[in-house]
Amino acid sequence: MRRLRACLGAAVAVGLAAAATTAFVAGNASGAAGALSNRWYAAAPYLMPLDNDPPDAGAIMDATGLKAFQLAFVLAPNGGGCSPTWGGTAPVSSDTAVQSVISAIRAKGGDVSVSIGGYGGTKLGQACSDPAATAAAYQQVVTKYGLHAIDFDLEEPEYENTAAVHNEIGAAKILQQNNPGLYVSVTTAGTADGTGWFGKQMLLEAKSQGFTPNNFSIMPFDGGFSGAASQTSALTAFNAILQSTFGWDQATAYAHEGFSGMNGRSDSGEYFSQADFQTVLDYATSHSMDRFTFWALNRDRQCSPADNGGRTSGTCSSVAQNAWDFAKYSVKFAGATPPTSTPTPTPTPTPPGTGCKAAWSSTAVYTSGDEASYNHHNWKAKWWTQNEVPTGTDWGPWQDEGAC
User: What is the pTM of this model?
Assistant: First the structure.
């Protein structure tokens, strides 16, 4: 899952740093705050506070009624070591910039969860020696910011590393035990059949360690998805995986299941509109799912006309919208009613279409350079392949050439 995380190492915006000083002085330096209900942490959308043109969290709260934010991402230092940093570059131990964002949110009656991992960078599970050392690094984050919630975002390439996943799941269990009431989510890749082989191995690791988080969430995007129907189908399939893995009945599995979507245009050129979010929200609530979130608030605003809706951006959605349209679905999931907005978004021009190649066939043999269409996208074969469904995975045999 790419999820536009290539900007993790970017410098903190000057405007944010300036705002940080004032907020930090006024805020609670220890990070302690009263907990919200778990439903708010379950609804918290992702926000990068230091990269991808961070929006003002207070303005989002005022416009939507949102109370909780999922701050991303805590990683191991780029230079090596088992200590927590923001994006691999900013040590948590000396942080004031993110602390100021948290303080400002809490001053308005909100709170945050912190997400560790994500796509790209070195994860603490890869860098630390064992679950105890990994947990000790994360405990620094929990203590520094007085957290009531934390998210383990286990993606490639870390979740392909058995030892790293063992460390992460073990650390999550230790944090859960040592911080009573801590809300813990585990987020991983979504596929048409729920989650892939590595996701299933992660669930088996959790079972072997006797670890049950508040939820296991999948990200049904960047994998040949097309709108809400494909996402709800994946959630249904994932529910069956949770049942078979843990021996849960259907209702118990849904009570430990979550959805993490991507608003607007995904990395692989899929589009998810406000209507798609409403459909998945209805599915999540009707099945009493535990979590509904999305990547990311940094993208929850309309692109400029120059973007033309034809590229994926870390700072806008590439679909027609009012600012913070997608955040309002999180507010609804939390059980609150967002304010009514009246502005009408300027339609984002649809990128010029291209003709679809001959439809992909499971029986055909494709060699390097051959093209086929699947799910309204054209695909080019990277090497010899047969009966491998075109998807946007980096390790797969197909390269996505865009919508047709």
Answer: 0.80
